[in-house]
Amino acid sequence: MRKPDEIERLYLDFDGFFASVEQQADRRLRGRPVGVVPFSGTDRTAVIACSKEAKAQGVKNVMPIAEARRVCPDLILVPQNPDLYRRAHNALLCEIETVIAIDTAKSIDELTCVLDDSGRRDPELLAARIKAAIADNIGRCITSSIGFAANRQLAKIACKAGKDESKRRGSYGDALAIWRPADMPEPLLRVELEEIPGVGSSMAKRLYRNGVYSTPQLYALQPKHMRRIWNNVNGERLWYALHGYDIQAPEQKRGMFGHGKVLPPDSRTIAGAYEISRLLLTKAARRLRRESYYAGGVWLWLSIRDGTWFGKHRLAVVHDDQAILAGLHALWQRVRKDYPRGVTIFRIGVTLYDLSPSNERQIDLLDNDDALRRKWEKANSAVDALNTRYSATIVSMGEWKPPAGGHAGGKISYTRIPSAEDFW
Predict the structure, then answer these.
(1) Do 12 and 143 touch, CB atoms closer than 8 A?
(2) pLDDT of residue 146
């Protein structure tokens, strides 16, 4: 396994991306504390993203609105505009591509690049050119923090460490951190254990049980020891990444398609939540078909006043709306049976799971509805073609009633980059 002796990777993270895009799009918001919320007209939700000015006053992402207003009385609440963020993401990638080729867009606000010879020689100049391209051609409200290191994992940690250092200096973002192999591991050892990607809260507790309480202690472990703690090869991969080796994680296989949504106050009944869940699952099914998969099951998750409700329903390895929505209907029948007097539902999630690539589909030998299923699939193909032609939902299975505030299926996503089709 190769261990680079110079920096080879760049990791870029846009600072307060969603709020800064709002500021760039609306000059009235510039320089003011901004909080992005799921929908307007209610304080019974949370700030899901905030600007650097809001963060400087103590506002945090996923902070209840009432608490955010206490720490920042002049906070301006802006309803989310996910399609704007998608378009901004695409525009920003185009500008960065004029300076350096992008290897992977890790999320809507993070990306990584492989350095060429000039980038390895002068990373400061490369970072300055990227930031200048964004400032000159997109706008100065959208800033980014950049980390350089021998591999992608270390570059990501360096990027986060640079951003944290900017906070300690009294600013936020627009940071730069260069971790050359010759300087390692000292910069890494100053990072808190829980700040290392791959060490979440549950894994940190497992490390504590194994006598590992700090990053220096983690760094001192042997690769096989880390594999035992993680109970899989990811622990060993992390060891090699932290020690500067050029290691690439294997490509992740698609495991499910789903959507979730915080419900508007007037949709928090079983009837209201059901209508929104149908819309969300239809959009998930469209993504399923676009990527050529079939699903063997659907699950429904509800956040309710007294906790949560969760149910699964098996499907006959399908991808058409009729079969998928029939499965969802069966799940809601169970909800109605469990709550005959109704229940307040705050959030819903719908997911298609047990996926099969279209060229590997296997149905039950005793399933007699294959001919009917093929008819529904042909009908769905025609519907998808019409919607694609007009770039809108003009035909749907049943009534199409988008919820108040819109964006169902196209909400803010930190892990997935939405496509234009998500907003139809």
Answers:
(1) no
(2) 97
